[in-house]
Amino acid sequence: MRIAQIAPLTEAVPPKLYGGTERIVSYLTEELVELGHEVTLFASGDSITKATLAPMSTKALRLDPSVRDANAPLTLMLEQVYRRRHEFDLLHFHLDYLPFPLFSRQSVPFVTTLHGRLDLPELQPVFDAFPNAPVVSISNDQRRPLPQANWAGTVYHGLPRNLLRPDPAAKPGYLAFLGRIAPEKRCDRAIEIAIATNTPLKIAAKVDKVDVDYFESTIKPMLDHPLIEFIGEINETQKQDFLANAIALLTPIDWPEPFGLVMIEAMACGTPVIAFRHGSVPEVVDDGITGYAVSSMSEAIGAVARARALPRAAVRAQFDKRYTGRRMAEDYVSLYEGLCRRETPALAVAAE
Prior knowledge:
Blueprint: E1 2-6, H1 20-34, E2 38-44, E3 52-57, H2 71-83, E4 90-93, H3 100-103, E5 110-113, H4 123-129, E6 134-137, E7 150-154, E8 174-180, H5 187-196, E9 201-206, H6 212-219, E10 228-230, H7 236-244, E11 246-251, H8 261-268, E12 273-276, H9 281-284, E13 291-294, H10 297-309, H11 312-322, H12 325-341
Helix pairs in contact: 1-12
C-alpha cells in the first residue's frame, strides 16, 4: 500500500527526548516499511526514517525558537498533504481532529489516531459535526466520552521488539517514575509509596513550562528525603538501564490515561508496573502477570512487595505477546485495508 503518515511538528520523529505520539509514529512507520509498504512520512525536517521523508519544517518546533506561531507550519502541512493526497491509498493522521474539516470533503481514505484525552466538553460538538470521520482509539476506555465518533478500531501501542530488553545482570534496587511532572501524573504519590515501603525512588521526568509552578510548590519540597533521587528528563538510550534495574515502575496516575506508553516500555525490560486503575490501565496491565492495577494508596504500597516476586521473564513474555511494534503495524494494515474497501468513503459533514 501507498501510505502517508502525518505527524505533529512539535517533536521530531522519533523525538530527541520526551514525545510519546511522535515515538509511536516512528515505530509504526518503520514497521510498515519493513512489511514492504511504500510509506511517506510528513514530519519535521530533523526526523529520521527509512520511509520517504516529506519535511514540513526545518526542525522540531519545540526546538526552534525562531518559530513563534506553530499553527502556520501545521496549516501549511495540511495543505501540502491535501495537494498530494492522490499519491496515496490511505492517509493516516496523528493530529487529533485538525484534519476533519478539509479531509472529510475529499475521496481518498483517511483515518486519525486519537492520542490524547477525550473527556473535554469542547470536543463533543466537534465530533458531532464530523460523524463520518474515521478515528482510531489507543484503548477501549479512551472511547467512552465520545460514543458518537466513527470508531474504526482500537490499536494498542507497540515497541520494536529489541528496543528494550531485560538485563540478566540487573539487580533491581529501586522504584522508578518515568514521564512528566504534572498534577495528573501524581509523582507525589510515587514519593509517598517509596517512603512508606522504605524503598529508593528514582524520578526521570521532564517539567513542562505549564507545570513549573506545580513542581516548585508540590514536588520539589518532597525531594529532600534521602530515599528520593530526581534525575530529570532522560533520552531513549538511557531508558534501558533505568527501567531494567527497577523493582517496579510506579504509574500512580489520577486521570483517564489514553494508553500509557511508559508501562509497556517497562514490560519490555521485564519490569512490573504498579498503576492506579484509571483510563487504559486495566486493559494494559495484566494483573498478577505484568504488574498490578490498584485503586488506593494502601493497595499500591502492598503491591510493591508482590511486584518483587513477579517473574520478570513472564513480564517480558506478555510484552512479546501483546505489545510489539510488528503487532501494532499489522493491526493498522488490517484497519487500512478495511477502510480502503469501503465503496463510498466518508464525505458527509453534519449540518452541511
